[in-house]
Write a structure and sequence with these properties.
Blueprint lengths: L6 E5 L2 H5 L7 E6 L20 H17 E11 L4 H6 L12 E9 L13 E8 L15 E3 L16 H11 L5 E4 L6 H9 L2 E6 L2 H17 L22 E5 L6 H6 L19
């Protein structure tokens, strides 16, 4: 029997959708949160805008991530120089404990193209490396520098203003997950992480609040999984049906292959219901 990786996409509020995921059900995280909500552009005096709202909202996001990501889990989170500390602080527990996710290092991505800024023009993205309490980091060779030099256009993209490089996402996936792992992107945008998951043989759960970007992601991710039917070297581990049975304003169910009880249970989605109060920033990435 050849199992193929499952994926599912949700349109809605990431806090409400993540709240319905089981504890310790996610293997890895690769995401690009709307960190520009913390202030103005990454340049000049506009960057002094108060980030209090983003900070409190991000703490709520981290509370859910700490609950649903396995202790062995790892991941990557895009940020910038203004929000790097906020991103890291969001995972810190109120009471002293080491049993949580933690930002342990930062990767610097040199885009090989200058962006905005004055007097210095920004040309580097920051990516936080997040590790669970039982993470070993063994997938990353100990000779790997925390500096990536890869061209990525700074300007208008076809699908999303903060669109990410699929090849870059694939490299991050290789560093934080194994084939057959379930990867979460709660800020899916146009679906770059989902496309990378398809090419790398990972399962994927994507959440996007904006209807238009969700439609773009749904089309792109669906095509990626359809075109790239990855045959795993070993069968997928059992996946709890409750991992995918979530009420959301709109959801796109795509499960292929496999005849296990978990896959049979997942083949029929729950009846959709409308999401309630809005709790995420209005700008999604």
């Amino acid at each position: 029997m050849n199992n193929k990786v499952p994926y599912k996409l949700y349109q809605g509020d990431c806090l409400e959708i993540m709240a319905q995921l089981p504890d310790n059900s996610i293997d890895a995280l690769v995401t690009d949160p709307p960190f520009t909500m913390a202030g103005g552009l990454s340049n000049g005096r506009s960057s002094t805008v108060d980030s209090q709202f983003f900070s409190f909202w991000w703490q709520a996001v981290c509370k859910e991530l700490n609950r649903i990501i396995k202790p062995e889990g790892e991941g990557f989170i895009w940020c910038d120089w203004r929000t790097a500390q906020v991103i890291a602080d969001g995972f810190k527990p109120k009471n002293q404990t080491y049993d949580t996710l933690a930002v342990t290092q930062m990767i610097h991505h040199y885009r090989k193209m200058i962006g905005q800024g004055k007097p210095f023009r920004n040309s580097v993205d920051l990516i936080a490396y997040v590790r669970g309490a039982k993470s070993t980091g063994e997938r990353i060779p100990n000779t790997t520098p925390n500096f990536i030099e890869k061209y990525w256009y700074y300007g208008k993209h076809d699908n999303h203003p903060a669109e990410k490089d699929v090849e870059m996402c694939a490299q991050l996936l290789e560093w934080c997950s194994d084939k057959g792992a379930i990867v979460l992107d709660p800020f899916m945008g146009s679906g770059a992480v989902g496309k990378a998951c398809a090419s790398m043989g990972r399962g994927f759960i994507g959440i996007e609040k904006d209807f238009d970007y969700f439609a773009i992601a749904e089309k792109g991710v669906t095509e990626a999984y359809t075109m790239k039917s990855v045959k795993l070297k070993k069968a997928l581990p059992p996946i709890s049906p409750s991992l995918f049975n979530i009420n959301a304003s709109q959801q796109s169910v795509h499960l292929t292959g496999g005849d296990s009880a978990a896959f049979q249970a997942l083949s029929t989605p729950e009846v959709d219901s409308t999401i309630g109060a809005d709790s995420t920033p209005p700008t999604s990435r």
